[in-house]
Design goal:
Oligomer: single chain
Strand content: 25-35%
Helix content: 10-25%
Number of strands: 15
Structural class: alpha/beta
Radius of gyration: 19 Å
Order of helices and strands: EEEHEEEEHHEHEHEHEEEHEHE
Low-confidence stretches: none
Shape: globular
């Protein structure tokens, strides 16, 4: 089976096509013929070896990727929410989506949104579930204010849209070129992005906001925007200082592995227009190096996707 992986951790040039054996199909699992795999920042870290210590028993080739979409080719007995031939999307934990044949837990897989192809659908599971988890952990009430940094990105964009669907007021940051996009995603107020974003947010909400989803990884720089006792959701396991009663919620998408109901809810929200599936560029799998190089340049709006 063809896959994209690394045999030595390194930069984008370390990626190359590799041959891997077919994975066995076990109880409660589904086999996909992969058509698309989204490229995320966590994939680039995995490729570089940042997570090697967490998985000491893994051996090369190491296959990145957490988002996948394709066609069901085989099902374990008892899997009844899918049928062979369905076009589906799924979350791959911890990594391993960049391959043309993939076995996943059936509860990590749902049908793609109606009207979406595999490329678009592959952009939803990881970032959408991470955004949903961040909001669930903060548990803000309708009418409260949430600030979103990195709002033009994939995670931040989904937080904006899901927060609006939850009845929250959203203040978000954006570069000049992204202001219109972030408003279109549903932000009520948009402030300039940058290290002084907390000051900009406090100008709009002097008492601070109830919650912060820090997609821009500003960490301590963004904390002054949050009211005393407020909630902070982070995506790189950041836990800030114990001050002002701030509550920190490091958000790891692995906690949503096999949460089929949450993934299916995202599917429904993409179908009804609550969520927007954004594809920035596509590359055939053989050009994965270029895909990673493009992502690492920054400024991507939407997801880069590999096709098989």
């Amino acid at each position: 089976m063809r896959a994209v992986g690394v045999t030595t951790f390194g930069g984008p040039e370390a990626l190359h096509m590799v041959d891997v054996p077919a994975e066995p199909l076990g109880p409660g699992q589904v086999r996909l013929r992969v058509h698309a795999a989204a490229v995320n920042p966590t994939d680039t870290q995995y490729r570089a070896g940042a997570y090697a210590a967490y998985y000491p028993d893994e051996s090369p080739p190491w296959i990145p990727g957490m988002d996948v979409a394709g066609v069901v080719t085989e099902l374990s007995p008892g899997v009844d929410h899918l049928t062979v031939g369905d076009l589906v999307m799924g979350l791959v934990v911890p990594q391993g989506a960049y391959r043309e044949d993939k076995v996943l837990p059936a509860d990590s897989v749902v049908r793609v949104p109606a009207g979406a192809d595999a490329v678009a659908a592959s952009t939803l599971p990881m970032n959408g579930l991470t955004a949903r988890l961040a909001l669930d952990k903060m548990a803000l009430k309708p009418g409260q204010v949430i600030a979103v940094t990195g709002a033009a990105g994939a995670f931040g964009g989904y937080v904006v849209q899901l927060a609006k669907a939850d009845g929250l007021t959203v203040i978000a940051d954006a570069a000049d070129k992204d202001v219109e996009l972030v408003h279109e995603l549903g932000a009520d107020l948009v402030v300039p992005r940058g290290d002084d974003v907390a000051t900009r947010i406090r100008e709009k909400f002097p008492d601070g906001v109830a919650g912060l989803a820090d997609g821009a990884l500003l960490d301590a720089l963004a904390l002054p925007a949050v009211a005393d006792g407020g909630a902070v959701a982070t995506v790189r396991n950041y836990r800030g200082p114990d001050e002002r009663g701030l509550r920190y919620f490091p958000t790891l998408v692995a906690d949503m592995d096999k949460n089929r109901s949450a993934l299916d809810r995202l599917r429904q929200q993409a179908e009804d227009g609550t969520l927007t599936l954004r594809v920035a560029a596509t590359f055939p799998a053989e050009r994965a190096t270029e895909a990673h190089q493009l992502l690492e340049k920054g400024g991507i709006r939407g997801r880069v996707v590999l096709t098989f």
